[in-house]
Amino acid sequence: MKKIIYALTLLVFTATFVSCSDDDDNQNSNIIVHNATGTLTLKINGEARTFGTLKVIEERYVGYTDLVIQGTQIDDATKNITVALGKEKLGSESIYFVQYVNNGTHYQMGSIEITGDITESNDTKIIGTFSGMLSTINMDNLSLTDGTLNISY
């Protein structure tokens, strides 16, 4: 049953990002990619990880804007992370998706599994903490703890 729920969550999340807009000719005008500086650190199964080469992708929609943070582990380019949150949305419900990729294996968690606290999210800065359990589609798990964001873009 968990695999079915996980697969459906993945399907809905994927469909959200690939759905068509009303204006296909101007499809990318509301997506802005920012090179970012700062820190994105966390522990995976107790092992500290630091991510660099940070980008913040601003996805603008009617009534809200999402910020998608991407980073590559500084000592291993086969590992990267994506954190998605609402711009200017503070508190425990801002982060709605986290994905960690380890050499092609995707581990992710949706909003139900994320414990987070965003204290700043605006036009230039994101600050907050997050943790939770990451899973593959086969339900292999990784514990993500002590996640911190302090990013300027």
TrEMBL record:
Keywords: Signal. The lineage of its organism: Bacteria, Pseudomonadati, Bacteroidota, Flavobacteriia, Flavobacteriales. Residues 1-21 form the signal peptide. This is Uncharacterized protein.
